[in-house]
Amino acid sequence: MFTDENDELATYNTYLQDTKFWQQLHTDAIEEPAKEAAAPQKKYWGTVLPAKDFDRTADAKALRSLVMERDVDEQKLIDILAHRSQRQRMEIAMQYEIDFDEDLIGDLVTMLGADNDFGRLVWALMTPPRLYDARCLRGAMEGTGTDESVLIEILCSRNNKQIKKIIEAYSFATNFDLKKDLEQETDGNLRSLLIAMWEADREDKNVDYTVTLGEASTLIDEELGPSLEKILATRSYAHLRQTFLDYRRLSGHHIMEMISRQTGGFMNPTKDAIKEGYLAIVKCVLSLPGYFAERLYMAMMGFGTDENTLTRVIVSRCEVDMKKVADIYERRHGKSLGAAIADETSGGYCNLLLALIGQE
Description:
By secondary structure, the chain is mainly alpha-helical. It contains 21 helices and no strands. Keywords: Annexin, Calcium, Calcium/phospholipid-binding, Repeat.
């Protein structure tokens, strides 16, 4: 009994720390536009940069040599793939086909295998982002059961343009319709939320403070009513940040606390998909890097490691905001992202992940 009470207290303390941390990220997000506008030049927050003296012909030749060798030299492969931008990797693949009349991605998969983490990470790096997202979505719905967390992560974190490209790639690569698959593989409020995200109808407008105040009042009255989904799925990030701020001023608590309370409470160990979906959108609005830092932490906490999530998040963010992701990870958990990855993975897979986050 005493142990159960200690566990509950530890869970409650973690919840309070998380809430306080996200409130700080909320404040940072509101202040960030002014700071960026005042900066002398726009910063690049990715950890993978285009190679300065890029020679796609030389890279294609080097990769061909690796493919033809019996023993895979993982470090040579890492030295090339982790230090070329996604666009440059695509150019290498095209040059490889021109010079050797072979498919580079197919050759790499054959060489490395598709049933191991290193091989899957290399495949992810060589696949265009929209196609990679599409295949991850299809993979989450194939076979028995549905990995709702993958659906939520991708559809709730991508912008309108990205989602529209994913829809096209999904149809092209799988011969299936994404909307129909979502309707068949999910149900209830989660289905409704994911279809709303599929519609890619988020506004890009300036903040109207009268509207945000009114919508904050509506959310206080309705809580998990129909307005929540519409507001989360269609309002701009700037609008939602102000709405959440107004909500907190009017209600005395953060909207994340309301969502947790109305979906079973933070002490409820049962996984609630709609809770995950609502909170994913809120967290992306407050801080996209913060959301992905949390995804990485969840992939490595406890027993076992979710390598698929590690791969998916790091590949998708390494040319976007991985510096911010790593910084938030370390601030929240007191341990560098690189150290966490080194503890949870090994071999070429570990080395390639560390190279992609700039912590070789």
